[in-house]
Amino acid sequence: MYCDKTEIEQVILNLLKNAAQAMADDGTPSPTIVLRTRREPDTVLLEVIDNGPGMDQKTLNRIFEPFFTTKEVGAGTGLGLSVSYFIVTEQHNGRLSVTSKPGQGACFSIRLPSNREALP
């Protein structure tokens, strides 16, 4: 996989931090974060999966918007996921998506091209 390792590290650390904060704020019993990777035909898949409070559809519809946050005032800027989305989609020609339901945790999926020619 070809990528800017510092930028992808920033994306993964942001997802880990958000998951940890969501589970801590919710008081999730036995909080767990799973990192999973898999090679697909033309991409590499990285997943960050948690067993936290999850998100409703209204939140999912706005999750990658700049300045959107579900955190209390002063606890977040609402830029982490929008910057992560930009890094993955614009800087790496990849895809960043999320699946979640209230009470069922969240799974953020990062798909990056597995060949150098696919990069911008």
UniProtKB/TrEMBL annotation:
The keyword Nuclease does not apply. It is an enzyme of class 2 (transferase). It catalyses: ATP + protein L-histidine = ADP + protein N-phospho-L-histidine. SUPFAM superfamilies: ATPase domain of HSP90 chaperone/DNA topoisomerase II/histidine kinase (SSF55874). It comes from the Bacteria. Coiled coil: none annotated. One of its GO terms (molecular function) is kinase activity. Pfam families: HATPase_c. Residues 1-116 form the Histidine kinase domain. Keywords: Kinase, Transferase. InterPro entries: HATPase_C_sf, HATPase_dom, His_kinase_dom, Sig_transdc_His_kin-like_C. Its EC number is 2.7.13.3. PROSITE patterns: HIS_KIN. This is histidine kinase. It comes from Candidatus Competibacter phosphatis.
